[in-house]
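Appendix B. One record, verbatim.
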Amino acid sequence: MSWINKLLRQAPAVADPPPVSIMALVDHERESYRSALVKLHAELRSLKREVFPEVQIKFGSEDLPEPYRLMRLDAFYKDGENVGPAEANINNPWKFTSLSENWSGLHVTAYPLVWNSVEFKVSGPIPDHKLVFAWLTKWYDPSDTRLAGADGLYNVVHNVTLPEQSADGWNISVDFGSGPLDAFTEFIELLMSSGASKVEIGSISYGPANPA
């Protein structure tokens, strides 16, 4: 991934708005969301609730094939007889118009986004289902083999939606959860190897991420 390493060397770990590059944007929003997850878990524990971070569930609909039936909750808590899910949200992502770059022949345009709801609009063929399954198996960890880090997070992707065909390509949304930046770059590599020529990324459906 020499192309992505070059982009990362150009991108500061923290930058003031507007973002100086797409990778600076992505990495900043990743760190913001991970911080929100850690804060959520700490707040739940401060209420003396038993907390289960990033537990996985499976949708019962038989219409959805694997791996699109898999999902990890930000947290699940138990407080006496009360149990339920809890969600971390980012309310203040970077506000800007757009950024466009060329990543080794792949034209990438980025709009405001949040790490837990990155929508991809792709020009090109839908990847082979087995490739998506292999990528998600690695980063979602359906067998729960990963150990939590010092921050209590498991470095896992939370969900991927079923690809939807569009007039000039296809769309998909990824909740990257506590996953590392490698989960994002390897997904980009998957798109490249599958013949994508252009990708737009953003969080259009996520209200707080839209420009004011």
